[in-house]
Write a structure and sequence with these properties.
Chain A contains 7 helices and 6 strands, in the order βαβββαβαβαααα. By secondary structure, chain A is of the alpha/beta class. The longest helix of chain A has 16 residues. The two termini of chain A are 29 Å apart. Chain B contains 20 helices and 18 strands. Chain B has a 7-stranded mixed beta sheet with strand order 2-1-3-4-6-5-11. Chain B has a 5-stranded mixed beta sheet with strand order 8-10-9-12-13, sandwiched between helices. The chains are: A alpha/beta, B alpha/beta. Strand 2 of chain A pairs antiparallel with strand 7 of chain B, so a sheet runs across the interface.
């Protein structure tokens, strides 16, 4: 398989680093070579976070080049727009319909309009935070929910068993059940 | 970390920073069960010195720090090159090209190799971080020199599968044995000149070792070609990626040794070539050395580097692709077209919701008379310089606010409010405080004591009553330190009580001596974690 390029983007505190670990492990379980790159530090304080995950037969650089992403998952509306230059006309955009406001934040309608322009029919706008809040009382599960959405809708060439296996290996016992539920919630969505 | 563990490390010291803090943190978790000793030292200099003591006592030691840490510890690093090590030592230094998590400068720490004459290894991947850590210990053991392992953010904060041996560990921890040897451990003239000669001799031997080492290797191509690429660190993978995109098959010399360089190998590689591209991040150290080697060996070859690649900011595949295309005289191919970049407002880091600093910074801003100068320091309190606060007139390095505020106060007579965090105060704020008292200036120092080294991810510090390995210690109180340093006007308060903070600021701004307000309230993230996690609550107790 040619290298599959994924970007996950959002805001510090949304659980992105855990999400990347799950995805990495799932790739390994499915027998792929995988490399991912992430930034910590200031990002813990509510700054933008962007992570790159590349997997396939053999991966060189851990970084996705501009215009080369196959899938961009955005846990926050404006953050995915910020990283839209990693996309080409075929790139899938999977977006959590939620915005983390700050002074100078763009209006949601404006962001969505721009996203539609960039992504066209490849835009999947999903209210993941709302769904997780309503059904599982935990907004932070929205990342795992989106991962499930990507897998069950064929946006990510990984088997559900691989990701579920990774979740079982990495998530502490206490939170395991709700993570599995969040992942599978997308199956019926 | 696994590399050091499998190499049989006994003693780990360092200071947390980005991208290196995870090493110390992980050792904190596993040290006890593996018979290892691990600590957060008060700063990198002390951390290195602790490791020197352990090495002189025969232990295998690892020191970890971020880029600027090597500046802090350099005073002891240079003599260490002269005395050499007894127990082997690897010093991990995490550089951060593009300053993703670094406020001070875009430092290329490889340059320390030339100043200190200490071998430097430059890994490209997590696998090489593992392999080179072991190699570093091997070199250190063989030649009795410390070895610096320099990794950049993209290498250090990367996840990839790593093959490791997982050899059963038999650490000696604190069971070292210091055997007196002043001849080797004391640097004093005229002996120090002999030591320098000894170091130069060792380096000659290490050069031979480097020339044979598998850490440097050539990826050959199928047919002879007169263009070659020399790369190190993460740049190597950008080169591989770019060649794949261009459908090229060029020979690549990948350098794992930065210092000393495998000069014979390089000479052999460039011989008969017409063009060479040197792909390295930031400073053109390799490029200059390779040009010198070409000159020394009379090799006629065109060497390109920083004329094709930027000296500022990290590299990536796109930048390297253009350089590789240039060197073979082709135009870079049109890639899949990138969607139009959209201009999006910058999301600056900000104080967390519930952060105690939310009580402090606006109060300072409100109360300080117009024209007050605001000193800033490293840590979460850096956010004072960002909206909505905007109260930061200078920001340098760890603890620097103390010295600069003294200088401004002394030179201008203007009112100075100097802000520093608890971790930074212990790291290197104290000498500056002593200086301000001793030389009689009058800044108002406000210590933002959130009970932990928060910015780098909640590491223990001397003020909070816990060590890295979880031992209980007596809290070192900042007010006690300040009092002992001769500060006469000290107030400790809970910043949630804003009227008290306000009147303290007003009162102390009238003083013509150094004054200090310590705002003590636990970091809100830690508070939340303590609330939700009984084990953590029991661990930290009453902080």
């Amino acid at each position: 398989m040619e290298t599959f390029n994924t970007i996950i983007t959002g805001v510090g505190g949304q659980g992105i680093i855990t999400l990347v670990s799950i995805l990495d492990q799932a790739c390994l379980l499915q027998g792929y070579d995988v490399k991912s790159s992430e930034l910590h530090g200031l990002s813990q304080r509510g700054g933008s976070v962007i992570t790159h995950i590349r997997f396939g037969k053999k991966v060189n650089s851990p970084m996705v080049s501009k215009g080369q992403a196959d899938l961009i998952i955005g846990l926050e509306l404006m953050e995915i727009l910020r990283d839209a230059d990693f996309a080409n006309i075929k790139t899938s955009f999977l977006v959590n319909k939620i915005s983390m406001q700050f002074a100078g934040h763009m209006k949601d309608e404006e962001i969505i309009e721009k996203l539609q322009k960039v992504a066209g029919k490849n835009l999947h706008l999903v209210p993941a935070s709302d769904i997780c809040k309503e059904k599982l009382q935990k907004e932070v599960l929205s990342g795992v929910y989106l991962l499930g959405y990507a897998v069950y809708n064929g946006l990510l060439p990984l088997k559900p068993e691989s990701v579920l296996g990774a979740i079982k290996e990495l998530v502490p016992e206490k939170y395991l059940d709700m993570n599995i539920k969040a992942f599978n919630l997308a199956k019926t969505a | 970390m696994q590399g050091a563990l499998d190499a049989g490390v006994d003693f780990v010291s360092g200071y947390p920073g980005c991208p290196s803090a995870e090493i110390g943190e992980e050792f904190g978790k596993i040290a006890k069960e593996n018979g290892i000793y691990a600590e957060w030292s008060t700063n990198e200099k002390v951390g290195l010195e602790a490791a020197i003591g352990a090495s002189f006592s025969g232990l295998k030691t690892l020191v970890n720090m971020k880029s600027f840490g090597i500046n802090v510890c350099s005073d002891s690093l240079f003599p260490l090159a002269y005395t050499g090590t007894k127990g082997p030592m690897v010093i991990f230094v995490g550089d951060d090209p593009s300053c993703h998590s670094s406020a001070q400068s875009e430092q290329d720490s490889r340059g320390y190799a030339y100043l200190s004459k200490i071998p430097v290894l430059d890994p490209s991947s997590p696998q090489e971080c593992y392999d080179f850590t072991k190699l570093g210990f091997e070199i250190s053991e063989k030649f009795n020199v410390p070895v610096i392992l320099r990794a950049t953010t993209r290498v250090a904060h990367q996840k990839a599968p790593v093959e490791y041996s997982g050899r059963p560990h038999s650490a000696k921890a604190t069971r070292g044995d210091f055997v007196k040897n002043p001849h080797q451990f004391c640097t004093m003239p005229p002996r120090v000149m002999e030591m320098k000669e000894e170091l130069l001799e060792k380096l000659e031997k290490i050069k031979v070792f480097a020339d044979k080492s598998k850490a440097n290797r050539i990826d050959r191509c199928r047919r002879p070609i007169r263009t070659g690429i020399i790369a190190s660190g993460i740049s190597y993978f950008y080169v591989k990626e770019a060649m794949e995109m261009l459908g090229l098959d060029l020979p690549v010399l990948k350098l794992g040794f930065f210092y000393p360089l495998p000069e014979n190998l390089i000479a052999k590689f460039i011989k008969g070539k017409k063009n060479i591209l040197v792909a390295e991040e930031l400073d053109p150290y390799l490029e200059k050395e390779i040009k010198r080697i070409a000159k020394d060996t009379g090799t006629k070859v065109e060497i390109h580097g920083k004329d094709f690649l930027p000296e500022t900011g990290e590299l990536n595949t796109e930048k390297v692709l253009v350089a590789v295309a240039k060197i073979i005289g082709k135009k870079a191919p049109a890639l899949k077209k990138s969607a139009v970049a959209v201009d999006v407002p910058r999301r600056t880091a900000r104080l967390c919701e519930g952060c105690p600093y939310w009580f402090i910074l606006p109060t300072i801003k409100r109360v300080a008379p117009e024209g007050t100068i605001f000193g800033g320091d490293i840590g979460c309190n850096m956010m004072a310089g960002l909206p909505p606060h905007n109260i930061q007139d200078y920001l340098f390095s760890m603890g620097a606010s103390m010295g600069i505020s003294h200088g401004v106060s002394k030179a201008s007579g203007q009112r100075v409010i100097s802000i520093i965090g608890d971790g930074t105060f212990f790291h290197s704020g104290i000498p500056g405080l002593v200086n301000a008292v001793y030389n009689k200036s009058n800044p108002l120092i406000i210590v933002l004591d959130n009970r932990i080294t928060a910015m780098t991810g909640h590491q223990q510090n001397p003020g909070m009553g816990k060590t890295l390995m979880g031992a209980d210690i007596q809290q070192i109180k900042i007010e006690d330190v300040a009092k002992a340093c001769g500060v006469k006007h000290i107030k400790v308060l809970d910043p949630k009580n804003m009227p008290e903070l306000e009147s303290a600021i007003k009162e102390f701004l009238q003083k013509d001596e150094v004054s200090m307000i310590i705002c003590r309230r636990v970091c809100t993230l830690l508070e939340r974690r303590l609330k939700n996690n009984p084990d953590l609550r029991e661990f930290y107790g009453n902080i």
